[in-house]
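The record is passed on directly below:
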Amino acid sequence: MLEIKHTLCPSCSVGCGINVVLYDGEIVGTFLYKRHPVNAGKNCLNGRNSIDCYLNKFENVDVEALIGDVKKELQSADASNVTVICSGNNTIEEIEAIKNFADY
């Protein structure tokens, strides 16, 4: 069954709208979200190609190993050179998780 879900483009922090096209629950493509107030259906090249990121880079990823690698990088960095940026859209729980993640 073909479905279209409205969501935000994952390419950057602007917040453009994009439609994700699913077939039997699997993402098969993206399409312009013309009524979105931020971009009115005008997605950049990164937004139009964001499906490639999903299809090619995130299959079979060991999330725990990835988090461990990022933590190692943070622990080896000079703390004065590390910045963590959060959004006002984050929930308290998300901010707490980010704080705990970045607190080394």
Remarks:
- Residues 63-76 form the longest helix (14 residues).
- The chain has two domains: 2-57, 63-102.
